[in-house]
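[step 3/7] fold_predict: job queued, chain A
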Amino acid sequence: MTKRREGGIINNGEMPERTLTDLQFRYETHVHTCQASRCGVSTGAEQAEFYHSLGYQGIILTDHFFGGNTAVPRDLSWEDRVKRFCSGYEDALQAGKRLGLDVFFGWEQNYQGDEFLVYGLSPEYLASHPQVETWTRAEQLRYVHEAGGCVVQAHPFRDRDYIPKITLCDLFADGIEAANFFNHPDWDARAYHFGLKNHLPMTAGTDNHRAAGFVEKGETPFATAFSQPLKGIEDFVQAILTNAPMELCVTEDRLNPVIPPAREVYRLRQDETRERIFAPGEPWVTPSR
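[step 4/7] structure written:
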């Protein structure tokens, strides 16, 4: 069973149930392809066909960018690298046009284990701005805003070996991914309550690399849902920037209870250095901004 919980501010810290018809247009906000992500298995077209079969209104392609697990060779020209990087999106876009599925462009950038979903910038922008690859977190937020986009920190409480330090980067993002299908539920619960306490825009995404896996297991991906179809990626960006009503389509009881982390948690200061805010054995208090 899938429940949808309201993103953004919820009065008195409660999590009221919403009917499934309230916000019925579902979007996948975090999906990868084998054309651009080294860890991807499905093509862009296969991802589009999969989400269309489930009745989703659209998907946002967020392949691993050049700071992360990219499948794009680094010895190519910038033009060729961008072309290869966008090939999964273009494949999905063509399938989406045929199927009637909205397909939007984004990417996922990695900084020492903390990762960010960038929305609202076009492949053309990427092709004409090679400096994107060397942006700091602060520059990323600044220039993405200047170009009309937004930044969401992906899975902020994820605890895996490839992440050297769990680091909250809310000063460098417009919102957080509060639910990620491939996270442990405890990690998502911490993120969700962090978002609630600090009135942050929140999304739910699947981080889907292999569509066939869901078919084989009969599982349903996560989604972020809206009351009407998005006319373009600009609508999604505005929803994040204005903390507009949206729902997190997640499995039942995904976001409760909150259990203390098993290792240290840090927060990124304005100068992009880390400050430890929690160590195992200490009382866990959801951080405030």
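[step 5/7] annotate
Residues 21-256 form a domain with the TIM Barrel fold (CATH 3.20.20.140).
The chain has a mean pLDDT of 91.
exit 0
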